[in-house]
């Protein structure tokens, strides 16, 4: 028997061996490891030449460097043959995965020119035809205007809903270029306050409960309707019945994070025998030392609301800063706002500023929102000479 050592010696001496051995070894490794489908290499016996990429299987292509041939990144289409048509696209809507780059979403001083989307949000207890007519006379392009409403689950909410739906139907079935880009109508989760008399609604005791319910309604509306394309949110109460036609262009042009118009009221003055105006919304104010001092002495759950004689806060109320001879674009700093007519950059809400239903720095609802926006480092402004009008209440 030849020993192994001798065999190796003889083979090494043979020149054929020196040539053939590396070739044989390579062929052996190829068949053993690669061709036989070694699972560790992950190709399971398939040649790399036969490998199908996802887009090839799905029959879709995506050209990342070409704008001209932009195709959806994702597709659920299955390859279909003339015989078997696997119509997955019937079940899963196409483009239901959408991409939005929030870095490219802006809210600028030239909103209309830059095609920025504005979402007008209105909590609505009563449908006033004057509100709707005023809304329809706004000149901001409708294709960039979305509307959102929330109505209470009360009998007055039911009436408002049917009137609103009729009005909406009329506009949205009219000429295409007259339609709003989207309209959302919500019914409130909680009941809401029905038919409180004007005096009762403003009684200090019911304020906390009422404003907390209003804050809930505003939050429900906001969080259900703010979309990835929204640049601005305009809070417009359902009883604001007169504004300048260029309201949105005028207010966006100030380019402020939060900006309130001055809410006044027109009324018939019996003595003067003519229509006069008077201040209405006292929730737009600048903080005072007195109010801060009062707040300090309050219990954690107490709130400090504006507009009550028995609680003098000495806050500077924007309502009293109106100057009929002043420039309509004059601005003033504010610390608290109302919801009558307030424009907010959508990013302020996206950053987390909402309407506290609980006392937040002894403030609630829209005034609490202003405080929250300030804590998020946004500045708040008002337009004392830019008037919008609240309906004159007749429910006495
Ligand atoms: N969704 C909803 N909206 C309400 C409710 N109460 C009032 N509103 C609406 O909220 C806005 C402000 O309410 P309002 O009573 O006019 O407050 P005021 O103007 O400060 O006296 C208006 O647009 C009302 O129509 C409610 O319970 N639920
Ligand atoms: Mg009102």
From TrEMBL:
Q: Which residues form a coiled coil?
A: none
GO MF term (any one) = alpha-1,6-mannosyltransferase activity
GO process annotations (BP): cell wall mannoprotein biosynthetic process; protein N-linked glycosylation
For whether the record's keyword set contains Membrane, the answer is yes
Keyword annotations from UniProtKB, A to Z: Golgi apparatus, Membrane, Signal-anchor, Transmembrane, Transmembrane helix
Major subcellular site? endoplasmic reticulum
Bilayer topology term: Single-pass type II membrane protein
Q: Where does this one sit in the cell?
A: Endoplasmic reticulum membrane; Golgi apparatus membrane
What Gene Ontology cellular-component terms does the record carry?
A: endoplasmic reticulum membrane; mannan polymerase complex
Entry keyword Glycosyltransferase:
no
What does UniProt give as the signal peptide span?
A: none
SUPFAM superfamilies for this protein: Nucleotide-diphospho-sugar transferases (SSF53448)
Q: Record's superkingdom?
A: Eukaryota
UniProt cross-references to Pfam families, sorted A to Z: Anp1 (PF03452)
Which PANTHER family does its entry note? MANNAN POLYMERASE COMPLEXES SUBUNIT MNN9 (PTHR43083:SF6), MANNAN POLYMERASE II (PTHR43083)
Which family does the entry's similarity section mention?
Belongs to the ANP1/MMN9/VAN1 family.
Name-wise, this protein is ZYRO0F08492p
Which organism is this entry from? Zygosaccharomyces rouxii (strain ATCC 2623 / CBS 732 / NBRC 1130 / NCYC 568 / NRRL Y-229)
What's the source species' lineage? Eukaryota, Fungi, Dikarya, Ascomycota, Saccharomycotina
